[in-house]
Amino acid sequence: MPVLPKIRIFGWRPGQGAVPVGYKVKAAGLGDGTCKLCGSHIETILHAMRDCSSVQEVLITSGMDSLLPQGPFRDYFEWLEASHSVMSSE
Questions:
Q1: What is the DSSP track for 25-68?
Q2: Which portions of the chain are predicted below pLDDT 70?
Q3: Are 22 and 34 spatial neighbours (Cβ–Cβ below 8 Å)?
């Protein structure tokens, strides 16, 4: 499936740890690591892309919530791969 380069980069950056999410900011001693949107969890890539309550509102409003897999995933790439499989089959 053809994908725009900016979308490809958007998918690649989190998997390479190239997104300054809260847990990385905390590890660098630059903050407490808490999600700036919901303020209730340590921000990881999966939290920022799927689990944050503010993100959940956007996903529900857009109708994307039913398309994305919700199970436990080891990492961002595993979740992204499962998401791609679900969306490709629809």
A1: HHHTTSS--B-TTTSSSB--HHIIIIISHHHHHHHHHHT-TTTS
A2: 1, 90
A3: yes
Tokens of 13: 């950056």
Q: What is the pLDDT of residue 49?
A: 86
Q: What would the two tokens of residue 5 be? A: 């380069």
pLDDT at 30: 93
Distance CA 41, CA 23 (A): 10
Reading the block at residue 21, the tokens are 């999410």
Choose among 49, 45, 53, 50: nearest CA to 75.
Answer: 45
- The structure tokens listed for 8 are 């490809």
